[in-house]
Model the fold of this input.
Amino acid sequence: VGNFVCVNVKADGNQVYEALLKKGVIVRPVGPYQMPEHIRVSVGTKAENETFLTALKSVLQEMGIQ
Done:
């Protein structure tokens, strides 16, 4: 049992990680676990989860991914 989920971002997880970090959102890439298009996201408060989703949508849009 863990307090995180792995999200398939349909893009390079490291690039998404770096872009989210620049927006102040901390996640972890999981490429070393043979999941190069995934990031690990900890479950947070409702406000934290909403901040993450807003930032992720923005990053993916900037990368041309929907």
Summary: The two ends are 30 Å apart (CA to CA). The chain has a mean pLDDT of 95. The CA atoms of residues 53 and 59 lie 10 Å apart. DSSP finds two helices and three strands in the chain.
